[in-house]
Amino acid sequence: MSTVAAERVPMFSSMAIRNYRLFWTGGLISNVGTWMARVAQDWLVLTILTQNSSMALGIVTGLQFLPVALLAPYAGALADRVPKRKLLMLTQAAMAITGLLLAGLVFGGVIQLWHVYLLATVQGIAAAFDGPARQAFAPEMVPEKLIPNAVGLNTTSFHAARLVGPAVAGLTIAWWGVFPALLLNGLSFVAVLVALAMMDETNLTPAPRVRAKGSVMAGLNYVRARPDIMLLMFIVFMLGTFGLNFQLTNALMATAVFHVGAEQYGVLGSIMAVGSLSAGLLAARRTQLRLRLIIGAMAGFALSVTVLAVAPNYWWYAAFLIPAGMTSLTVMTAANASVQLSTEPAMRGRVMALYQAIFLGGTPLGAPLLGWVGDAWGPRWTLAIGAIACALAVVIAVGYLVRQSGWGIMPWRHPEEEVVVDDLEEAR
After folding, report:
1. Which of 1, 157, 325, 339 is most buried per CB count within 10 Å?
2. In-domain check, residue 268
3. Residue 6 lies in a domain
4. Alpha carbons 121 and 41: distance in angstroms, whole number
5. Which CATH number covers residue 417?
6. Are 236 and 358 in contact (CB under 8 A)?
7. Measured in whole angstroms, how far is the alpha carbon of residue 352 from the centre of its chain?
8. If you ran DSSP here, which 8-state letter would residue 193 be given?
């Protein structure tokens, strides 16, 4: 039995690769715009189009992620069939158009709630095809040993933008209104398009393309035969469906419980990003991924959200967003890298599409449900339900692992050799 050495790599190793550096930089700019748009869209729905309707906000959030759940198998199959770089150029252009349309409707003063619903759905369709291609594209830019580093740096980019975007959006909305924040989001996608156009294709290592029929079912069968991947997908499903609804819960707590303005609401997202960014930087150095790390971080997240649910004031709430961000991000990066490393390159697009569907696809269920809970029982219960669900996931995952083999390291199957680094493999 061979094992993977517990080594660490320099934190910014993948940045030495030009293609990855372009992709990361373009993604950072686009992510700043995305976080600005999320704050602006929530503020638009809550304060302009409705009277603090958590149900309406939950529906908007759900519509953004419903296509991810419905289209994931086909999006993953497409990502394994066509060049991922060209597919990303199409999806990024589509998201730029929808972002600019929303900004234009606000600028023209004709925006209605159904417009937001419709554009959220279209944006979700584009995102459903963008996600698997984007996640499976990282291993084509870097060598295999740097995949965890690339995943960690991608997450760092996302949450560095999360640190800046909400705060900038809050100030922008307070000073100039919702329109400029939405406009900047639409324009930010240009950065990704430029980065993709400037890449050197000769330095990419594309995975083998799949042209056979039945590729969608092959992806489903592949995951079904991998209990290690299914366990990770269960954990991230519970996290994504019930725990990571801060787009909804922060807005409700800010407006209905603490009664603060747009600036303070925007700051909440930036404060949470402090913890997320810290976890992302740590993830960039990690090459060995243990199940106990993922489950322990999930338990820490459940505890942090419990404290958020009972926070007595705005500042207590803001402070505990930091550990909530750190623990949730640790779960996300470790699970994502584990799935990527344990999947054969030819299957990676389909597997990551299913992973994305499980992680994000539960939001159409969770967001409206929590929106209803917020209207019926109050905003604090939207957090309490999430904490209970994540704690339940920890209990189930621990029970499964103890029954199988106890604590261990995630099994990484490489196509060239059998690399067994977990007692879970011995239990099979």
Report:
1. 325
2. yes
3. no
4. 14
5. 1.20.1250.20
6. yes
7. 12
8. H
158: nearest Cα among 23, 302, 343, 57: 23
Whether 279 is in a domain gets the answer yes
Strand partners of residue 290: 409
Confidence of residue 427 (pLDDT cuts 50, 70, 90): very low
HSE-CB at 50 with a 13 A cutoff on CA atoms is 19
For 144, other C-beta atoms within 10 Å of its C-beta total 14
Range of the domain at 319: 13-204+214-426
Instruction: Note the pLDDT tens digit of each residue in 289-320.
Output: 677 888 999 999 999 999 999 999 999 999 99
Greatest CA span in the chain, whole angstroms?
A: 66
Tokens 């019930």 correspond to 242
Answer whether residue 403 is part of any domain.
Answer: yes
86-113 per-position pLDDT tens digit? 999 999 999 999 999 999 999 999 999 9
* Distant-in-sequence, close-in-space partners of 251: CB < 8 Å, separation ≥ 6: 42, 43, 46, 57, 265
How many structural domains is the chain composed of?
Answer: 1
Which residues, including other chains, have CB under 8 Å from residue 60's CB and lie 6 or more apart?
41, 45, 116, 117, 120
- The DSSP bridge partners found for residue 409 are 290
State in Å, rounded, how far the first CA of the chain is from the last one. 14
Taking the whole predicted model, whether its pTM rises above 0.90 is answered as no
The CA radius of gyration of the chain, in Å to the nearest whole number, is 21
Cβ–Cβ < 8 Å for 240, 362:
yes
Tokens 């500042």 sit at which residue?
315
